[in-house]
Design goal:
Blueprint lengths: L32 H32 L13 H14 L7 H25 L2 E5 L4 E6 L10 E5 L3 H24 L1 E2 L9 E2 L4
Antiparallel strand pairs: 1-2, 2-3, 4-5
Length: about 200
């Protein structure tokens, strides 16, 4: 059974969000609690997705044996890095990545691709409140030849938080595999673990 993505914590157990004064108040004018929750969730989603994207790039660099990390496929996206990692992993020699590790890592990478697809609705789509149904929805153009209508999907203020938690879980998994397969000794004097992922 594949390990499930983390679910939301019980609201009674979760820490409260610190109150703050918006740096640009008019951007938050008229925002109710639900919209504030949704807006912060999208921000967390973007941050966690960006960290996974960065970690996937590091894994790809190691799989490809690239000597200069920041000069190798540096302009790619998270979906692109996940796809390229899968391609590289399938082609890599057995002595570098054993079959058992390969299958487990491939499963994680496939889930990364799915997670980025879910993120696209919030990052590249338009969030709008539908007064008739009293729900939030995302409007996003469809990809593919012959697509004529927008993709419309109802959502909740908690969904971006759940996606952010999923990205966090996947980033930890990818980093764990990167260290397991390509890790270098850490520096305990600097508070580092025994092995770390190094991106040069």
């Amino acid at each position: 059974m594949p390990e499930s993505l983390p679910s939301q914590s019980d609201p009674e157990e979760a820490p409260s969000v610190p109150a703050f004064a918006p740096p640009i108040p008019w951007l938050a004018a008229g925002m109710d609690e639900e919209e504030a929750e949704l807006t912060m969730g999208v921000g967390l989603l973007v941050r966690e997705a960006a960290l996974l994207e960065y970690t996937l790039h590091g894994l790809l660099v190691h799989l490809a044996g690239a000597p200069r990390a920041y000069a190798y496929e540096a302009g790619g996206t998270g979906s692109f890095f996940a796809k390229r990692c899968i391609e590289s992993l399938k082609a890599i020699e057995e002595d570098r990545v054993p079959s058992a590790s390969r299958e487990a890592l491939l499963e994680v990478l496939e889930r990364c691709k799915e997670q980025f697809e879910s993120r696209h609705r919030f990052v590249h789509g338009h969030l709008q409140f539908d007064h008739e149904s009293q729900q939030w929805l995302t409007l996003k153009g469809r990809r593919g030849k012959g697509a004529r209508h927008a993709e419309v999907r109802f959502t909740t203020s908690s969904e971006p938080w759940e996606l952010a938690a999923g990205f966090h879980w996947l980033q930890e998994k990818v980093l764990w595999w990167d260290i397991k397969l390509f890790g270098e000794p850490g520096d305990p004097d600097e508070g580092e673990p025994a092995y770390v992922s190094v991106k040069r």
